[in-house]
Amino acid sequence: MARRMGFVFISGLAGMALFVRSEEGSQWEFLLMGFAIGAALGGLVLVVEYVLHRASFGAVIGATTGLAVGLLLTGLIEWVGSAVFDVEAFLFHVGGLVFLLGLPYLGMTLGARFGSEQLGGPARPSELPVSDSKKILDTSVIIDGRVADLCETGFLEGTFLVPQFILQELQHIADSSDSLKRARGRRGLDILNKIQKMVDIDVRIVDDDFPNVKEVDSKLVVLAKKVGAKVITNDLNQNKVAELQGVRVLNINELCNALRPVVLPGEAIRVFVLKEGKEAGQGVAYLDDGTMIVVDNAKRQIGRNVDVIVTSVLQTTAGRMIFTRLKEETEVKEEVQVARG
Q1: What is the mean pLDDT of residues 194-198?
Q2: pTM value?
Q3: Are 320 and 289 a contacting pair, CB within 8 Å?
């Protein structure tokens, strides 16, 4: 803003310099007139620059062509009015003024619309919602890898920002003496390389660092606030810290929980009892999405497929648990209740 105001002011000074007169008398009137004209022309240049910056290439070409045609028609009408109808200074009459202003504007408007539709061209970057298009990846979500699958399916797109301190953390994990950590770090680097090769994703390495902030998670939040970006994570603590500071978060785990099939109390499902539960007589099974199912009195059914009835569903921040009991037991209890009734 200050740069633009300075440009207008300098344009005004240039106008004053052009209107300087050597004679005495109305010197200040000419100086003020020159400043006003120079400032007006400077403002016009800024308006043209703003329009050209926001418009597509096709719209600019169409508007320029339409303006030229409109001015040509205006000149033709002036000549016809002066030569054929012998009207002196035709364009200075009210009717002529309409043509002088209307035809170039109409030509420019129609040309811009035609050029935008026919020639097309990508929108200028300034038209893109900056805060919505930028997303920052944290270490946990890169190592997890599911973010790459979401990018491949088209659910995630736009610009992904990867800070240097995140890359350094991944490199540190990949160089760890612990084989498990080393494998996780290398997996994270491979996932990042995979995302970088995708056509619809623009991965940018950000050099911004914040020496006064020690924790990597805190640096991530500070960077997100600075550039107006969202944070993609599956770390619950990172999620809470970011939301407390007003940063929007996309949590992969929350997305997976939202996409899990809905199971309601009273519904019958078939599961494979995998192991013994914590409580006496319980069996534990899992759905395909990893949801844990606790089956009452199913210890003897370990290693078998059984039909169960859902009794309740417990939703926690860590995930979802489904409590069930064997279908045959439920049917027996119902028969007993009917007999007693």
Answers
A1: 90
A2: 0.49
A3: no
